[in-house]
Design a protein that fits this description.
By secondary structure, the protein is of the alpha+beta class. Helix content is 27%, strand content 20%. The protein has 35 helices and 51 strands. The longest helix is centred in the last third of the chain and has 18 residues. The protein is elongated, with a radius of gyration of 39 Å. Keywords: 2Fe-2S, 4Fe-4S, FAD, Flavoprotein, Heme, Iron, Iron-sulfur, Metal-binding, Nitrate assimilation, Oxidoreductase.
């Protein structure tokens, strides 16, 4: 085993990390530090130092002094056998000398070849053999153990008797063996250390024969049963080791010079040998502690420690082989390293996390002894001694194997029942393979086992035992393997196989549409065949068929962002990052296929997100506003009636009563519908666009800020209460969640990000279905990534285990930065990880092992982004130019009269010095009969409100769209009307748009590349008045198809060189229906032939107004008026009508109406609230809504 396998994984990186921190001046210099003195520089002592230094390097709370008895730095005692080959102590060092000197100044000092002789707990100091006194604040005893030498055995002190423990022991053995060439050597003890010693003596090649003496009937009796141990004996004998079993040494025969000449056994037999090495066990070194009055176990049984490794004297701890935990000492290195981990954690992390406790250690071992692979894991003797512990059943059941009261009497009369364990055994004497796995009686849980010869499954089986999770495969599969099912790849599917059950799409339908050239992208496939447009469950298979069919045709499957860019999102991100492109114009010129294009609804939000992720400028500024989807454009979530929802930040779900009052006040004042979100926040629905600024102002004035619920960014970090309140909590989940949400808030990413932190394995925060989730463990937090709910739920995967709280942020910084850099557009972390080469394994290599050498850059990128945070709501409120974007209609204000409003004429146009134009165009085609509503004040309620459960919400959408052919409607006459000041539409490379009102009709006016367009505001698909908020897009030159947009004949501004037309459209923000703004068929929907919109000519004039060619207001309102298309409640039948009827009939006991009190004479919600507001509650001063 290499030395590095015993290092803390981060230990070798500490010098580099320290250097980076020193260069950034991030190591605290004037902190109040405690001194930790460590007695013992062995494997456990250095493990503690490594772990403490790693956790304390950014804190600098401690200085360490370590005192080692040997003249060497900490070395790999487990790898002592290799010393016989290289004979260099330095090759065994766990850390080179430079490692110690690279630590922060004063943080680590060591003394070698120095024995601590006494401890004075009163003065808190230790004294060395040289008389030096070293004071301490905390003392850690890691004195280890001595090899046992049987001093009761005659001849034990003869020349040629050795133990196998230290480098000095080996050096003595090497020197002595050189004087006994050709003699026989012997090892007493057939355990792990004995077999190692036997191999070492064989490697010396000085002895003509090496013999192993074992008192039991097989070797490795502490790890293996008789069958397994016997197989090892058979194999090592073939390798030349002579094994004597069931033999006990009675005395050592000594020659006249005091040297070993043979061994006499207790059974009377004897054998010749010139050298004996004892490897029969160890004895804890507790003499130093005993002299200091520290409580120790009887007969040299070690220093008694509690679960936190503390001894009977305050501020003194013991770890490793010298420590006695629950009357046990441990001769393996792994329990000692675990003790070091627990103590280092508690000294540095317990302030923000529940202190860890040392528990029953895992004694699993996997070694190669004399060339034989040997492993034992879990409770490997559960069938012999009975299980130490059994998995608890869920739902409050008893543990498997628990003895019921009725069985105890039977046990007394008939003897105890056999252990509640079943063994599954495999033995192959030809290949020298042995496996025995132990399961609970029902085969649902693996308890432990042992392996000889073939140990490759060891790494998979150990976690199964530790986690105690029910198995999802039969026990037999652990031995014989799983039966191979049919390969479900698309290659084996016949042409008539149904791929999409929602739309009955067969495999042949897909392959035909691809091979005949109809479909050249996965989007084309979905559009042409409808596959994947239902539940979406078939999309992975559809994608596979598409990719393989394209490959079979010799076609490359490209992952381009959209037709405007021949780059993937990741490629485009890197180009923008390297070239520092910060505007849409520069990006289109540098990377786009057409420098003059306005982009589309696919590339614009992606570019907006990338710019925000890299430079974090305000997204509503003129140069970036046209890149944003409606939610980002207005910093709120658009709802189906055209209003918005507002969600302030509630980090970690923690909120004060004062902030609840503020939210309640705002909701009450503006008549908003309120609901608790799945992310533990409060959502306020029904906010009108023109009220957003006022509502934000009230929230921000009360100490709140934007919750970024509208953005493709971090939404929430959900938490349970953890150690804050919960009796089961072992981690401060609220504290961690608040810190993470505060750190990553506002950061734009390819898709929304959700986090969660659970305080224990009960997982109340559902952290394992989040993009990143933490679950507190005794050692810190398990970090999970790549989970999500939604249409395709996915369980997250473990990225890092038992991460100390201090290390959580660097790992998440790297993970999120890498995701932002490399994910595809609108790709959740789940799909992103699935598409990484190597999946989660590759991600671990990149994030934890720095495989690509970019971890420092990823951390810096996140640090820079976090440091540029600002509240987007606040910056809008402060900026007069940004405030202008939050008007319902740019031509409608309180100074206008009713006459002006109904005529659609701006106030400026009525002035006699500026008369409206008189040119009129009349048509002879009358519109179809439409019953025009009586004139009424213009309405903003596009969906009828209904009251339900004490709150108001919009009525349900109708099932059918408005399929009237608006684009072909023939008006009686059209007149140029000055509709909006040109200054309201600020030119931008992405286009600009505003909403205007004329009579009861809402219109959308657009400015794209110097030309104006106008359409109805209503999208007919769901009768939503939102088109002015949509993204503007175009096709590349020459790509417009007849009947689907472009510019009209003679419109030179829309033509490219050679007369090719460019198709221009606006995309509805709700469901992405794309309506042509001009061209051969203006108003046509490019992706839904059933719907269309009315379009109108528009132009700007020298008087500074944009004129639109419109029909008379009465005729316009008759066709497009808001009241005409208002969605009414009676258009859709209530979905729960029948259910409510049945529930009412059952008259469920104990139910009450919403807002009604259970108390007799109780006031109910409304009455109680009014009493509080009026000051009737004790201590209340009343509230004024």
């Amino acid at each position: 085993m290499s030395n590095s396998e015993w290092n803390d994984p981060e230990a070798n990186k500490l010098p580099e990390k320290v250097q980076q921190l020193e260069e950034k001046d991030e190591i605290p210099k004037n902190t109040q530090r405690k001194r930790i003195v460590v007695v013992g520089l062995g494997m456990v002592g250095i493990a503690f130092i490594e772990k403490l230094m790693k956790l304390d390097v950014k804190r600098r709370e401690y200085d360490i002094i370590v005192i080692g008895e040997e003249p060497h730095l900490a070395y790999n005692r487990v790898g002592l056998t290799s010393f016989f080959q290289h004979r260099k102590v330095e090759n065994l060092y766990l850390n080179p000398q430079e490692w110690y000197s690279s630590m922060p100044l004063g943080s680590l000092n060591y003394h070698l070849n120095t024995l601590v002789t006494s401890i004075d707990p009163t003065t808190k100091s230790v004294t060395t053999s040289s008389g030096t006194t070293v004071p301490y604040d905390i003392l850690v005893l890691a004195t280890g153990s001595d090899a046992v030498l049987p001093r009761h055995t005659p001849g034990h002190n003869a020349k040629g008797v050795f133990v196998y423990r230290t480098i000095e022991d080996l050096q003595k053995l090497i020197e002595f063996s050189a004087t006994k060439k050709g003699a026989a050597g012997a090892v007493v003890g057939g355990g792990l250390l004995g077999l190692e010693a036997a191999k070492a003596m064989m490697d010396l090649e000085e002895f003509n024969k090496v013999k192993l003496i074992e008192r039991n009937r097989w070797v490795l009796s502490r790890q293996l049963d008789g069958d397994a141990g016997g197989m090892v004996v058979e194999q090592v004998r073939k390798l030349g080791l002579e094994v004597l079993l069931s033999k006990r040494v009675g005395r050592i025969e000594v020659d006249e010079e005091g040297g070993v000449k043979g061994v006499q056994f207790e059974d009377g037999e004897r054998m010749d040998c010139a050298c004996i090495c004892f490897a029969i066990g160890i004895k804890a070194r507790d003499e130093l502690a005993r002299r200091a009055g520290i409580k120790c176990a009887d007969r040299g049984g070690g220093i008694i420690v509690n679960t936190d490794l503390s001894t009977s004297i305050q501020d003194i701890y013991a770890i490793g082989e010298c420590a006695s935990w629950e009357s046990q000492t441990f001769g393996l290195i792994a329990p000692g390293v675990e003790m070091a981990d627990v103590l280092a954690f508690n000294l540095t992390q317990a302030k923000v996390h529940a202190p860890r406790k040392f528990k029953r250690p895992d004694l699993s071992t996997k070694l190669k002894l004399l060339g034989v692979e040997v492993a034992s894991f879990g409770d490997f003797f559960a069938d012999r001694d009975g299980p130490k512990e059994l998995p608890a059943r869920r739902h409050g059941g008893t543990k498997e194997g628990t003895i019921e009261a009725k069985d105890r009497v039977r046990n007394l009369t008939e003897g105890p029942a056999p252990p509640p364990v079943k063994a599954l055994t495999y033995k192959d004497p030809f290949q020298q393979v042995y496996k025995k796995y132990l399961f609970t009686m029902d085969g649902k849980y693996l308890l432990g086992g042992m392996m000889i010869g073939d140990t490759k499954d060891y790494v998979k089986l150990v976690p199964m035992v530790k986690n105690q999770k029910a198995l999802d495969v039969p026990p037999g599969e652990f031995i014989i393997g799983a039966s191979k099912g049919d390969d479900d790849s698309a290659d084996d599917l016949t042409d008539d196989t149904q791929i999409c059950s929602c739309h009955n799409v067969l495999k042949r339908d897909l392959t035909k549409s691809i091979k005949d050239g109809t479909c050249k992208s996965i989007g084309d496939v979905k559009s042409c065949t409808k596959a994947g447009t239902g539940c979406g469950g078939c999309m992975p298979l559809v994608q596979t068929i598409f990719n393989k069919t394209m490959a079979s045709m010799g076609q490359e499957v490209k992952n381009h962002l959209c037709p405007h860019f021949e780059y993937s999102r990741a490629d485009l991100f890197n180009i923008i990052y390297v070239k520092k492109l910060q505007s849409f114009e520069d990006i289109m010129k540098e990377c786009g296929k057409d420098a003059n294009s306005v982009g589309c609804e696919a590339c614009k939000p992606t570019i907006g997100s990338i710019i925000a992720s890299l430079f974090n400028k305000h997204i509503t500024d003129t140069s970036r506003r046209g890149l944003q989807d409606t939610n980002d454009k207005f910093l709120a979530n658009i709802q189906r009636n055209g209003t918005f929802s507002v969600i302030p930040r509630v980090a970690g779900g923690e909120i004060t009563p004062e902030k609840l009052i503020i939210i309640g006040t705002v909701a009450k004042k503006y008549g908003l519908y309120t609901k608790i979100t799945g992310g533990q926040r409060i959502d306020m629905f029904g906010v009108r666009k023109q009220d957003l600024l006022a509502i934000w102002t009230e929230l921000i004035d009360g100490g709140m800020e934007s919750g970024h619920a509208y953005a493709k960014s971090l939404r929430t970090v959900k938490s349970c209460v953890g150690t804050t309140w919960c009796r089961f909590g072992i981690g401060d989940s609220v504290g961690m969640a608040v810190r993470l949400e505060e750190r990553y808030k506002s950061i734009r990413s390819p898709h929304k990000i959700k986090g969660g932190v659970s305080g224990c394995v009960r997982e109340c925060a559902e952290a394992q279905n989040k993009d990143f989730g933490l679950i507190a463990t005794e050692k810190g937090f398990n970090v999970f990534v790549g989970g999500n709910g939604g249409a395709k739920p996915r369980h997250s995967e473990l990225l890092a285990k038992d991460v100390p709280p201090d290390d959580v942020v660097p790992i998440l910084d790297r993970y999120l930065s890498f995701y932002v850099r490399t994910a595809d557009k609108l790709q959740r972390t789940a799909r992103w990880i699935e598409n990484l080469p190597g999946g989660i394994k590759y991600l671990r290599e990149v994030i934890l092992e720095d495989k690509l050498g970019i971890c420092a850059d990823l951390e810096k990128q996140m640090e820079d982004l976090v440091g540029s945070y600002f509240c987007e709501w606040t910056e809008v409120i402060r900026n007069p130019e940004r405030r202008k974007n939050f008007e319902a209609f740019v031509n409608n204000d309180s100074t206008r009269t009713s006459a002006q409003l109904f005529s659609g004429t701006p106030a400026a146009a009525i002035d006699s010095s500026n008369p409206p134009p008189s040119d009129t165009t009349t048509t002879n085609n009358l519109p179809p009969p439409i019953s025009a509503p009586a004139p009424a004040p213009p309405s903003l309620e596009t969906i009828e409100p209904i009251t339900e459960r004490g709150q108001t919400r919009p009525a349900y959408w109708p099932k059918e769209s408005a399929t009237y052919d608006f684009k072909s409607h023939r008006w009686t006459s059209l007149t140029w009307q000055p509709l909006v000041p040109a200054s309201k539409l600020v030119p931008a490379a992405t286009g600009a748009s505003v909403a205007v009102q004329r009579g009861d009709t809402q219109l959308a006016v657009f400015l794209v590349r110097g030309r104006y367009y106008a359409t109805q505001q209503m999208c007919p698909h769901k009768r939503a008045f939102v088109l002015s908020d949509g993204l503007i897009g175009d096709d590349l030159a020459g790509s417009a198809a007849d009947g689907e947009g472009g510019r009209g004949e003679g419109e030179k501004e829309g033509k490219e060189e050679g007369g090719q037309e460019r198709k221009l459209w606006v995309s509805c923000p709700l469901h992405k229906r794309n309506y042509a703004l001009g061209g051969k068929n203006p108003g046509a929907c490019g992706n839904d032939a059933e719907v269309s919109v009315a379009t109108f000519e528009a132009e700007d004039r020298e008087d500074g107004w944009v004129y639109v060619k419109l029909p008379p207001v009465e005729e316009l309102d008759a066709l497009l008026g808001t009241e005409r298309w208002r969605v009414r409640a009676d258009e859709t039948e209530a979905p729960y009508k029948e259910l409510d009827r049945r529930l009412e009939r059952s008259r469920m006991k104990g139910r009450k109406g919403v807002g009604v009190s259970h108390l007799e004479g109780g006031r109910g919600a409304d009455g109680k609230a009014m009493e509080i507001l009026a000051g009737g509650e004790r201590g209340s001063v009343g509230m004024d809504w």
